[in-house]
Amino acid sequence: MLKRKCQQCELPIEGRSDKKFCSDQCRSNYNNGQRSQSERLILEVNKVLRKNRTLLKQSNPSGMSIVRKEFLTRSGFNFNYFTSRYKTRDGNEYWFCYDIGWMYLEDEKIRIIEYQSYMKKL
Ligand SMILES: [Zn+2]
User: Fold this and answer.
1) What secondary structure letter does DSSP report for 50?
2) How do residues 12-60 score in pLDDT, each as one tens digit?
3) 42 CA distance to ligand 1 centroid (A)?
4) Ligand 1 is a single-atom ion; what residues have CB below 5 A from it?
């Protein structure tokens, strides 16, 4: 019969056949490791969102700007990460990173705006 190993320390396990860990200590260490992995993911996503917001802010000193999409991409902007969307009455859409958003324009250009209080869906 194959000896089962502890999922945390890989020492052989004694006892019941459904045991996954050799000790309570190993089970708790394993679970802490799992949790910090998902917390790392959250931190990573937050980092991307914060960077996106900073880049939008820096590219938009006047409150409303139009920049080339390529300029943002080259600065490290990631268009897949945003916190909310807002649809205008004429059917256009703003993508927000917190309080600053962008809209896709023609010719690979991007309009950047600041959040306005009438954009209630945020
Ligand atoms: Zn163990």
Assistant:
1) H
2) 998 878 899 999 999 999 999 888 888 889 999 999 999 999 999 999 9
3) 28
4) 6, 8-9, 22, 26
